[in-house]
Structures are given as C-alpha cells and as structure tokens.
Design goal:
2 domains; about 325 residues; globular; mainly alpha; MetI-like fold; 14 helices
C-alpha cells in the first residue's frame, strides 16, 4: 500500500508542473500573434492615445514574463481573463465545457465498451470467422474519420429531407435531468461519431493483449487444475489483459476531445468547439488562449487519472 501511495504522490506532484509547462507554451505561442488586442477591442477608428491607454490599462505593455506570471496568478484563482467584449472567459468555459466533456466521455464509454466486447470475442475465437469479421470491422472503424461518419449519419438518420428522421441534425441541447429520453436522442449521433474510431483502435489492442494472456502458463495450469475457463478469463485473464489498453485509452482521450470539438461544429452544439471558433473568427486571442489551456489541462488531468487506474489495476507496478 505504501508503494501505491508513493506512486500516486509522484503523479499528483507532477500534475501542477505539467500544467505550468502547457500554460507557458500556450501563452508564448499566443503572444507571438500579430493581432493587436487593443485594436481588436477598440476598433479601427480608435486614436493612438486611446490604444495606448487601453494597453496600459490591460498591462499589454508589460514584459512577457510579467504578463505570464499575472496570468498564472489569475489562473490559480480560476480567472482566465476576459474577451475583447468584456465577458469573463471563465464564464464562457463554465457554460460550454460541460457539454464537450459529456460528449467526449459518452463517446469514449460507448467505444470502450464495444472494443472490450469485440476484442475479447476475437481473442476467444482467434483465427476463426468471428475473429476475421471483427478484424474487418475494427479496421474499417479505425479508417473512418469521425467528421465524415457524422455527415453520413446526418444524411441517413436525421430529420433533414431524405433522412429517416430518427435524430436531430442540429442539436438543441437538453440536460439529462430535464428529459432523459430527449437527451439520449440528441446526443446519440455525435457520440457514435466519436465512439467508432475509438472502438476501432482499441479493439485490436484488447484482442492482442487477451491472446497474450490466454497463452500464459498460469491459464493452462488453472484450467488443468479444474478451474472453469470462464472463471479464469473473468477473474484473471481479462483484468491482466486490460492493463495495456488502459495506457492506450489515456492517449485516446485527447483524440476524442479533439474530435468532439469538430463534431460540435457539425451538429451545432454550443461547446468548446463553437467557443474556439468564435475566438478565431473574431481574432480574440484571449478566448483562444483560455479554451486551449482549459482543454490541455483537462487532458493532463484525465491522463493522470488513467495513470492512477493503471497502477491500481496492475499489481506488479505497486511493488516497484
């Protein structure tokens, strides 16, 4: 237990260091932008004196390192700055980020569930027809871009002309607590668009890991000793086989979150995708910076959680 706590402590200590590094990188990149925040805020007709007054008031004339430490100080307090329209970016993120998180994790949950089922079946029926069929499905899913799949589903299943009318093409966000059935109907197609590529990549990993575990000596010994094969698979093989997919899942979170931003644009979901698009089209550096840092921090935190799960699932790591 002490080894487990020590390993968890290392990851928790590394978390703020990684967040600081990502924030520094994003801040420097955004500082290199040619856009003039004062001009964007006050308009083209602003006088030089007004522009200079705005820069002084906002601290834009300060050295980069001073502005960075001021930004970090605000970030620690949950302040991401304000857009050029004066709206706090933390308020925008609070309104939009939960939708992106819900879409990402529902898509991941569906994709991981399908991947585990298909990967286990492929391993149990290796080199037979179920394995071959699952292999074809996983390759096709992996090769399918999420945005292209979203467009195909809109054409086939949405309420536009020529579609079956089962799901909305333009999402009008409904909280789950308000209307569970409407929520599922609303988020079904966006979640599937994210789940399919995830399922394609993880299925092969689960299948390979399961095959390796099934060929180990302890499996043959347990079955030879009279332990039912189903018990060995469920209690030992499956748990050991999921260690490798867990590490891959940590990377897939980033891809899924990036894919969710694009999917939001297609289905007109008012999430982080719409927010960053708004910042780019308006040349609002503060919005782009705030959204980028928020997503990056979320990705780091999620990967730390995956690392913790990896330590919990893998008993061999606890003894290091």
């Amino acid at each position: 237990m002490s080894n487990l706590i020590r390993l968890l402590g290392r990851r928790i200590i590394a978390l703020p260091i990684m967040v600081l590094g990502v924030t520094l990188l994003v801040f420097i990149v955004m500082s290199l932008s040619a856009a003039d925040p004062a001009r964007l805020a006050l308009g083209e007709s602003a006088t030089p004196q007004a522009l200079n007054n705005y820069r002084e008031a906002q601290g834009l004339n300060d050295p980069t390192y001073v502005r960075f430490f001021r930004y970090i100080s605000g970030l620690v307090q949950g302040d991401l700055g304000s857009s050029f329209t004066g709206v706090p970016i933390s308020q925008m993120v609070a309104q939009n980020f939960p939708k992106t998180l819900q879409l990402t994790f529902i898509g991941l949950a569906v994709g991981v569930t399908l991947a585990v089922i298909m990967g286990v079946l492929a391993a149990l029926f290796r080199e037979r027809w179920p394995d071959q069929v699952i292999r074809l499905i996983s390759i096709a899913a992996l090769a399918t871009p999420s945005f292209w799949l979203a467009l195909l589903m809109i054409q086939a299943f949405s309420n536009i002309s020529g579609g079956l009318g089962w799901f909305p093409a333009v999402v009008n966000w409904i909280p789950f607590t308000q209307d569970p059935a409407g929520y599922v109907n609303m988020i079904f197609m966006p979640a599937i668009a994210i789940a399919v590529p995830t399922m394609g990549s993880l299925t092969r990993v689960v299948r390979t890991s399961m095959v390796e575990e099934l060929d180990r000596d302890y499996v043959r010994t347990a079955i030879g000793a009279g332990v039912p094969k189903s018990v060995v698979i469920s209690r030992n093989v499956l748990r050991n086989a999921l260690i490798t997919p867990l590490t891959v899942l940590g990377l897939r979170v980033g891809y899924a979150m990036g894919g969710a931003v694009v999917i939001e644009m297609i289905f007109n979901i008012q999430g982080m995708g719409q927010l960053i698009f708004q910042g780019i089209t308006r040349n609002d550096i503060n919005i782009v910076q705030g959204v980028t840092i928020t997503v990056a921090i979320a990705f780091i935190v999620i990967n730390v959680i995956v690392d913790v799960l990896y330590v919990i699932v893998n008993p061999r790591i606890r003894s290091i």
